[in-house]
Amino acid sequence: MTSLDPYQLNSADRQPTEPSSDGSRTGAVRTLLWVVLVIGLVGNMVASYSERAALVHLVCGVVTALSVIALVMQRLRGRR
User: Fold this and answer.
1) Residue 15: inside a domain, yes or no?
2) From CA 1, how far away is CA 3, in angstroms rounded?
3) Is the distance from CB of 53 to CB of 73 less than 8 angstroms?
4) Does a structural domain hold residue 70?
5) What is the value of pTM for the model shown?
6) Kind and range of the H or E run holding 55
7) Which of 42, 48, 53, 58 is least buried, going by the fewest C-beta atoms within 10 A?
8) 11 within some domain
9) Would you say residue 44 lies in a domain?
10) Confidence of residue 78 (pLDDT cuts 50, 70, 90)
11) Average of pLDDT values for 48-74?
């Protein structure tokens, strides 16, 4: 029985694409950004439980915010 679904992709509908040369580099950068994000979050949590100065919280917060911004920018750039 033939499928009448107009949204189904067939192998004939697909166009060959060239593999991206920076694909592995992008994956490595994304992994590094996630690691930095987790380190910033954990550092901020540890600083919360210890009686450290506000400077430690500020530094961890800035690192976390910058890594989130970089991840969002990378995601939006990849969608184009």
Assistant:
1) no
2) 6
3) no
4) yes
5) 0.64
6) helix 54-78
7) 53
8) no
9) yes
10) confident
11) 89
pLDDT digits (tens, 9 = 90+) for 14-54: 555 555 556 677 889 999 999 999 999 999 888 888 876 78
Neighbours of 2 (CB within 10 A): 4
Domain around 62: 26-78
Q: Which two tokens stand for residue 70?
A: 């970089």
Burial (CB < 10 A; 0-12, 13-18, 19+), residue 60, is buried
- Could you tell me which of 22, 18, 41 has the C-alpha nearest to residue 30? 22
Q: Please give the pLDDT value at position 21.
A: 57
The torsion defined by the Cα of 4, 6, 11 and 12, in degrees rounded to 10, comes to: 100
Length of the chain counted residue by residue: 80
d(CA 80, CA 78): 6
